[in-house]
Amino acid sequence: MHFHTQVLQRHNGIRQSQSQPAFNFRGGSIGNFFFAGARIFFGSLPAAIFLFSKVAGIPSGSRVVPAVLTEDRLVLGAELQDGTRIRGQFNISHPRPKESNDTKDTAQHENEHRQVIKKSSEVASLHSSPIQRISYLLNDPTWRKNNQQQHTQSFNGSSIQQQQQQWSSRNEITPEPNPQVLDAISNANCIVYGCGSLFTSVLPSLVLDGVGSAISSRYVYKVLLLNGWHDCETSWVETNEEDGSEQVVKQMNANSIVQAVINALNQDGDHNSSNDNDEDNGSIITTDYITHIFYPIGTEIDIDEQALLKLGIEVRGIESIPANTCSEGSRSGVQSYHVVYDTKCLVDALLSLAIT
């Protein structure tokens, strides 16, 4: 009800202003809306988690712990391999198409941003370079206003990149994790990196100060769950430097995903350590962070099992089901050839590790 009121107020323009413009609720998740409304109503993230857990019927033995215990607004930033810097979760996970002189219909434009990759040759828009790392940025209330002013002054096709480059390392912060997170890690008999968008869902919880060292110090199995398909965060478009035409869609393989996770965990507040790798930094042992990789059989992510075995990582395929036969897959608009984990088989596989 409280969230419903917020929607009506914003829709009627009551809360719209230059610093807080109208928010587009189309295509949103009901679960996310309910959770956001509970947090606004209680003014407490733990209270919202408690209410959502009761309403959703989450088993009583489960614990949902927020990674960061704060009511402040958190802002994500991403740095691409070519040096481009992007501010905001939506801009990271939904790359904006390049500027053009053609005016697109607003609904079509927003729909393109929400599309995920259907196949390697069919994409709405992708970053022009792979994402190298993720970080937290200072919340600047004037950011949107400054971007709008700059955007109106530049229509030469480079305005998007100029806006993205406005933040630098001095804008980065390293939030401290919720103490309960570190406590949960120290008492876990198995650590699992779950599915989801790699750079906006998984890694933001891993770059928090102290999380990497807490995980590396635990001598338990550490399992990375691969997704069943790529999205706009694990794919990018490489262009032909000679004529500037789009050449090919590139996608991260399992090895590069492993490296992204290790880089995030190894940051530990040091922004420069994200450039390290196993070859030039002997202090990083892959199995300190990841010991196993599980993947749904039929995943479109390329897996070089021999290369992973050389790193000490055991790879295991888990029974899968068509993505369009489950609620998450249907909501994401995936294709029939995409797959997700068979829940029971995944749970059984994880339990077999936890009890050994």
Instruction: Spell out the helices and strands N to C.
Output: HHHEEHHEHHEHEHHEEEHEHEEHEH
Oligomer: single chain
Assign an overall shape. globular
Q: How much β-strand is present in the residues?
A: 15-25%
Which structural class do the helices and strands define? Answer: alpha/beta
Number of strands: 12
Would you spell out the secondary-structure blueprint of this structure?
Elements: H1 2-11, H2 30-42, H3 45-56, E1 75-80, E2 85-87, H4 89-93, H5 106-114, E3 131-137, H6 143-153, H7 159-164, E4 172-173, H8 179-187, E5 190-193, H9 198-202, H10 211-216, E6 221-225, E7 235-239, E8 246-251, H11 254-267, E9 292-296, H12 305-310, E10 314-318, E11 320-322, H13 327-332, E12 339-341, H14 343-354
Parallel strand pairs: 5-6, 6-9, 9-10
Antiparallel strand pairs: 1-2, 1-3, 3-4, 7-8, 11-12
Please give a structural write-up.
There is one protein chain. This protein has helices spanning 2-11, 30-42, 45-56, 89-93, 106-114, 143-153, 159-164, 179-187, 198-202, 211-216, 254-267, 305-310, 327-332, 343-354, and strands spanning 75-80, 85-87, 131-137, 172-173, 190-193, 221-225, 235-239, 246-251, 292-296, 314-318, 320-322, 339-341. The protein is α/β, with parallel strands linked by helices. It has 2 domains: 1-64, no CATH class; 65-354, Rossmann fold (3-Layer(aba) Sandwich), CATH 3.40.50. The strands form 4 sheets. Strands 2-1-3-4 form a 4-stranded antiparallel sheet. It has a 4-stranded parallel sheet with strand order 5-6-9-10. The chain has a two-stranded antiparallel ribbon with strand order 7-8. α2 packs across α3. The longest helix is centred in the C-terminal third of the chain and has 14 residues, at 254-267. It is globular and about 55 Å long. The termini are far apart. The model is unreliable at 100-124, 148-164 and 271-281 (pLDDT under 50).
